[in-house]
Amino acid sequence: MHTLGTAHDHLDAGRFEECAAVCRALIEADPGNADAHAALGRALAVEGEFDEALAAITDALRLSPADIGINLERAFALLKAGHLLEGWAAHEWRHRGRVAAGPMLPKVRYLDDLDGRTVLIDHEGGFGDTIQFVRYGRLLGEMGARVVLRAPRELARLMRGQDGIADVTTGPAPPFDYRCPAMSLPYVFDTAIETIPTADGIYINADRGLTAEWAARLPPGPRVGLVWAGEPKSGDPAAQALDLRRNLPFRMLLPLTVTPGVSFVSLQTGPARGQIAGGVHDPMGAARDFADTAAIIANLDAVISVDTAVAHLAGAMGKPVFLLDRYDNCWRWLYGRGDSPWYPTLMIFRQAQPGDWLGPVTQAAETLEEFFPEG
User: Which of 175, 130, 166 is nearest to 309 (CA)?
Assistant: First the structure.
């Protein structure tokens, strides 16, 4: 029996063709089923069929124009297709129904002057989201703003002193003139693919003292960092299903760890850290936060990671990043690309089929041998 629940089960399990088939059957039976149109659009966007995906989501919005979730599905499809300006605008739907806590930062083109004004950037989403978008702090600082970042403890020590960030708080908001959630910064700056602020590709630096401390604890180089699982998200079934698709078991990385002459260093935290084997050095028991992780990365020659915060951090530090990416990749990596305009040093090795990690790991291993031909 075709039900919307079945369609979502297929999505969560990575069975996107099956999801599309169920959705089409549901729509044929009930053309007024907005959720079925939206789920069809999501499944089609995974396959890069963006015209059809956006048409399906448009049909859903005709039926339910105020639905926040459907509007966000449209945002993600637009962003993944590379239509960033439209996508950022649609992504602002996530704020609907919330009471704004103070004046929101308007689009930069409408700002007369930021000289001496305090702009509060609020952490939003996961750690990787704030790491990706804190680059805009530099631009705000160049416009004369005093930029304060409100972030979780895990990010605070790293972010203090970064270019453009005047202060970091982990508690209540200090007095400010404008606030901006981190993921709204690309919208505020009207960011298109061609205008993504990458500068020299480096906008986060590790503390020099910490970097020296960690250098003494690591094996001889060249050194390559490994991450195979994202931060677990308990209590969120959709996020847990996503984790099953974006994570891989450590044993699948063992073909990488035999690269001659290369020392492998785990950057993995959380329960997946217990999977380590095969002589991989594990310093993370002594790492307190992302400041320590950045200091370790500063001593590495490359990082191999699934789609998680460490990939963003290494990219923001200008390190070569081998991103092992799931089939239904996140919108931020766009569609069909092996590189990223967000991080010039990042290479994408994406699954050719849902759940098949052998291809990306093999490609990464071959590229690693090219990086270190003599070990």
Answer: 130
